[in-house]
């Protein structure tokens, strides 16, 4: 092929074509056409370096041909020089506006023709070289930022890929052309449809640019995440896209970081299950619209019973292994469409999706599935060389389309049901009932009122007389009453359990201890009452507070109360735990003169080791034995045994709940010498108690 510049002459005058050919040859290769239509056809196949175009031609004149050349993306960069015998201002302006590069006038002057053709070619060649340099700089800058470049020829259905593009995808081939089909076939099958939609949207002019994050196949067959972007840069005269240029970047590291961030935000690192945040999203997605349809679902909240003991006894590593085994068991028990999540700590959630046309009711299916889950979780866990046992409790709430969007509320309802399962003894399941919600709301309101009551000092003590032989007054038990501004006086059975659950029993107990100490000081100053002792019940929460002993001693010292007049009553439930620690606390107080009584003896664990290891002065026979002592021989025998046991250990005994003289007489026959109950006096405020007892002593010579 000749390397001479190619000149294409378009003129209906054959003589003019021949003359120009003789002038330009042999420095140029000349080809020609005698009409505008023929010229367009030939130019589409034979690309030339310059066009010499006659302005006046029949049919399609030179101006119309120039207009079409400049609209064609493949011809528009070709310089066009007008050839005319008449150059007037109007035609010259029109030709220049259409993109003419210069004019050659007839008759031809060979030196002028050569000069104008050479100048135009040199100018366009310089422009092309500048364009190539700028494009090279752009590609250099882009590839310096580790971006590959692609150039898509939509007309020829081919794409040019840069060297950096090949490097990013691990190709052995260098930069060059490839088929569009081979190029797009490298997109991951799962991403291909979405990528094609984005490309089509831009090519149709719906979006201003093309951008897509997807996976592409590397040379070794693996896939890498890429960010691809581009724009159509050329259109044909009908507005159809003809050329598109874009870039490609490797975003694998960013995707990995995003995946890690997503996992940390939405998945539990120990079990790799969805966490609470992710569960809420999955609930909202799974339980709305067509996902739930006319079917239903059940949300189960699972809590491991006494899991803390496993952690405390064997360490968190064993605890984590047990949690992972729980996750595996739960997932193995459900279907693919069901969801298992870990909410935190030892709490899991299971969402069971029920078939629309199932013959089994959702409630029955949920109960059966729940029972299966609890049974599986109760089986031993093999961790290392040991077997560990850990049952579970479950709260269940039914879900239908009306409740599907209330994800957080569903979790609250399931939690309420779980709380009821724990109260029922653990290792069981409970279905949510609206009455549970009412109870929880009432409990929450009561807790708020308790806090207000503490702040406003609405708790006051009443005192019930304790007597010895022949009903001689020995002291009193301090009993708390809540003076509610609307409900009046409230007994402890309505609020003590909640105070213990919420921890409010600790500040309440400290307030009551101060009241007792102040009352002991008042009686210490009264010659008629200075021998009275006061017994105050101490809860397990109070006893296990780190500063409990220090607080008791500090309160005694601050108030100046007579230490040996204070007796602390402990129930057997308060002694569960580290007995050595409890014994050390009791001995510290005992060394200062504080006495101890074991309350409600016989109703709890009744471990004799408590009596052996702990410094008690006294046992109290529970009112449940005393109530039926006259009719129930078992109660009578138990009461006699408790008195005998106390005597053998050198402990005194107080019988609670004595309401009949016959009860007192029988207890005296058993050897009991101290009593408390309505037979001897009802609980009274301190002032009334003092007044009644003082008057009785003065009247009866210190005997009531």
From TrEMBL:
Coiled coil: none annotated. SUPFAM superfamilies: CheY-like, EAL domain-like, Nucleotide cyclase, PYP-like sensor domain (PAS domain). The keyword Nucleotidyltransferase does not apply. One of its GO terms (biological process) is phosphorelay signal transduction system. Residues 6-121 form the Response regulatory domain. Transmembrane segments: none annotated. The keyword Phosphoprotein applies. SMART domains: EAL, GGDEF, PAC, REC. Residues 210-263 form the PAC domain. Signal peptide: none annotated. Keywords: Phosphoprotein. The modification 4-aspartylphosphate is found at residue 54. Residues 443-697 form the EAL domain. It comes from the Bacteria. Residues 295-434 form the GGDEF domain. Pfam families: EAL (PF00563), GGDEF (PF00990), PAS_3 (PF08447), Response_reg (PF00072). PROSITE patterns: EAL (PS50883), GGDEF (PS50887), PAC (PS50113), RESPONSE_REGULATORY (PS50110). PANTHER family: BIOFILM ARCHITECTURE MAINTENANCE PROTEIN MBAA, DIGUANYLATE CYCLASE DGCP. NCBIfam families: GGDEF (TIGR00254), sensory_box (TIGR00229). This is Response regulator receiver modulated diguanylate cyclase/phosphodiesterase with PAS/PAC sensor(S). It comes from Leptothrix cholodnii (strain ATCC 51168 / LMG 8142 / SP-6).
């Amino acid at each position: 092929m000749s390397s001479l510049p190619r000149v294409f002459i378009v003129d209906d005058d054959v003589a003019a074509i021949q003359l120009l050919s003789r002038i330009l040859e042999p420095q140029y290769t000349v080809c020609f056409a005698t009409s505008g239509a023929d010229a367009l056809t030939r130019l589409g196949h034979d690309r030339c370096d310059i066009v010499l175009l006659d302005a006046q031609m029949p049919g399609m004149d030179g101006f119309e041909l120039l207009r079409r050349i400049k609209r064609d993306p493949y011809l528009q960069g070709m310089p066009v020089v007008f050839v005319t015998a008449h150059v007037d201002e109007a035609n010259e302006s029109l030709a220049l506006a259409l993109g003419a590069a210069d004019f050659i006038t007839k008759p031809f002057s060979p030196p002028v023709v050569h000069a104008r053709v050479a100048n135009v070619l040199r100018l366009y060649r310089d422009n092309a070289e500048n364009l190539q340099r700028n494009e090279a700089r752009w590609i250099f800058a882009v590839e310096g930022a580790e971006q590959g470049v692609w150039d898509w020829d939509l007309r020829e259905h081919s794409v040019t890929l840069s060297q950096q593009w090949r490097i990013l995808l691990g190709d052995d081939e260098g930069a060059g052309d490839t088929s569009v089909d081979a190029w797009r076939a490298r997109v991951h099958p799962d991403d291909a449809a979405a990528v094609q939609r984005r490309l089509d949207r831009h090519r149709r002019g719906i979006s201003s640019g093309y951008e897509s994050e997807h996976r592409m196949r590397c040379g070794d067959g693996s896939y890498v995440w890429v960010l691809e972007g581009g724009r159509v840069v050329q259109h044909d005269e009908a507005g159809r896209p003809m050329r598109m240029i874009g870039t490609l970047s490797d975003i694998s590291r960013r995707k990995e970081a995003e995946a890690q961030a997503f996992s940390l935000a939405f998945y539990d690192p120990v079990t790799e299950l969805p966490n609470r945040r992710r569960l809420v999203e999955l609930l909202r997605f799974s339980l709305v619209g067509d996902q739930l349809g006319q079917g239903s679902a059940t949300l189960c909240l699972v809590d491991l019973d006494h899991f803390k003991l496993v952690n405390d006894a064997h360490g968190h590593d064993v605890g984590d292994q047990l949690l992972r085994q729980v996750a595996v068991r739960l997932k193995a028990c459900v279907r693919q469409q069901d969801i298992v999540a870990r909410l935190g700590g030892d709490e899991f959630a299971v969402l069971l999706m029920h078939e629309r046309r199932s013959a089994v009711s959702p409630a029955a299916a949920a109960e059966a599935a729940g029972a299966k889950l609890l049974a599986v979780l109760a089986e031993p866990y093999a961790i290392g060389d040991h077997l560990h046992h850990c049952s579970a409790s479950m709260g269940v709430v039914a879900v239908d389309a009306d409740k599907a969007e209330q994800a957080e509320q569903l979790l609250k309802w399931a939690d309420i049901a779980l709380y009821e399962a724990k109260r029922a003894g653990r290792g069981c399941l409970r279905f949510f009932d609206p009455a549970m919600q009412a109870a929880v709301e009432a409990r929450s309101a009561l807790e708020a009122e308790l806090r207000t009551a503490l702040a406003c000092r609405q708790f006051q003590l009443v005192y019930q007389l304790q007597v010895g032989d022949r009903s001689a007054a020995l002291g009193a038990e301090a009993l708390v009453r809540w003076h509610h501004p609307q409900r009046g006086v409230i007994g402890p059975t309505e609020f003590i359990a909640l105070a213990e659950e919420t921890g409010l029993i600790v500040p309440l107990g400290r307030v009551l201890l101060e009241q007792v100490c102040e009352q002991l000081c008042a009686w210490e100053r009264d010659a008629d009452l200075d021998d009275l002792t006061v017994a105050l019940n101490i809860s397990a929460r109070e006893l296990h507070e780190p500063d409990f002993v220090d607080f008791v001693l500090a309160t005694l010292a601050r108030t100046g109360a007579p230490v040996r007049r204070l007796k602390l009553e402990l129930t057997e439930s308060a002694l569960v735990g580290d007995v050595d620690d409890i014994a050390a606390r009791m001995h510290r107080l005992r060394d200062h003169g504080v006495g101890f009584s074991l309350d409600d003896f016989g109703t709890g664990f009744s471990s004799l080791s408590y009596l052996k290891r702990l410094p008690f002065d006294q046992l109290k026979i529970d009112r449940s034995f005393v109530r039926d002592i006259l009719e129930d021989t078992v109660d009578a025998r138990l009461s006699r045994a408790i008195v005998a046991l106390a005597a053998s250990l050198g402990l005194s005994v107080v019988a609670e709940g004595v309401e009949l003289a016959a009860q007192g007489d029988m207890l005296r026959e058993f050897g009991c010498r101290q009593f408390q109950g309505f037979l001897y006096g009802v609980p009274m405020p301190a002032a009334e108690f003092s007044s009644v007892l003082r008057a009785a002593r003065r009247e009866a010579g210190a005997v009531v």
